Amino acid sequence: MSAEPLLTSDVVGLTKVAPFSRRGFMTASAAVTAGYTLAAGPVRADVITTDTNGLTAGDAKIKVADGEMPGYFARPASASNPPVVLVAMEIFGLHEYIKDVTRRLAKLGAFAVAPDYYFRKGDLTKVADIQQLLPLVNSKSDAELLSDLDSTVAWAKAQGGDTSRLGIIGFCRGGRTVWEYAAHNGALKAGVAFYGPPVDPPNPLWPKSPTQLVPEMKAPVLGLYGEADTGIPVAQVEVLKAALAAANKPAEFKIYPGAPHGFHADYRASYRKEAAEDGWNQMQAWFKKYNVLG
Q: What is the reported pLDDT for 246?
């Protein structure tokens, strides 16, 4: 009998959302045509769409230890040496939401890059069943993940990005990645983690959870969480917050009342406009405070 895939806390928060009406959502075929994944559930019809006016944007090929990693980048067309911001995706692969976030960051003046660090597992945007997706993403080791991110930074620098003003933003599993990378890269100036799990389930490929990495944190991180996240209890966030404070590590947290997991994901039923917009503003202020954004 095959074991059920491990439901990590980010996925619990994703799958246990309040019931919703299908009205106001795209058909599955329209969602796929628009570049969204189906594994995350129905796609909202009024997704945020960011154009490329004033930007240079497109696909990237990033040299990594064992070949080439696909990615997506966007940068201001006229800026020389713009700051670099890594975009750490959810478990759904490099789909349209993550690309749009990348363009939004470029509109703020950043050279934003979203590496497809799950590429060795195939194109995750084409996996429509979350139960099939979980074993793939849960088999990604932290060592390989951090190496892929380092390779992305090197690629951005070679393309003219200013990696002395390096930031990282991530959502869901990518929010966890922000915490992990902040403990890894001493050159990182700041990170912003949207609902990244502070605690991991047992997995030999993930030696230390964000909370266990507190003593090793090298960059200030802003943690943005939903009070109604069914997978990440507020108590877990408070433990992480207290540990960072005790270790004198610069970090701030904001917990949004009534907001579920995925409140920034404007393509999903979990989207909460007010929390999402405030979180985006908090992110900009944080990156400006630490000189990532001008």
A: 98
Is residue 248 within 8 A of residue 278, CB to CB? The reply is no
Q: Is 172 a catalytic residue?
A: yes
What pLDDT is attached to residue 98?
98
206-242 as b/e, with b when 16 or more CB fall inside 10 Å? beebbbebbeebebbbbbbbbebbbbbbeebbeebbe
Q: Which of 10, 261, 264, 266 is catalytic?
A: 261
* Count of structural domains within the chain: 1
Strand-pair partners of 84: 111, 166
Residue 85 lies in a domain: yes
Q: Is residue 51 one of the residues assigned to a domain?
A: no
4 belongs to a structural domain: no
Predicted TM-score (pTM) of this structure: 0.95
Give Cβ neighbours of residue 184 (< 8 Å, ≥ 6 apart): 146, 149, 216, 218
Active site residue 264: no
Lateral strand order in the sheet of 83-88 = 55-64, 67-76, 111-115, 83-88, 162-171, 188-194, 221-226, 251-256
Domain that holds residue 216: 9-16+24-43+57-289
**Residue of 172, 184, 200, 266 marked catalytic:** 172
Going from the first residue of the chain to its last (294 residues), give the mean pLDDT of each consecutive group of 10, the final group possibly shorter. Answer: 57 61 84 91 94 98 97 96 98 97 98 98 94 95 98 98 98 98 98 98 96 98 98 97 98 98 96 98 98 96
The catalytic residue among 116, 229, 264, 266 is: 229
Known catalytic residue at 123: no
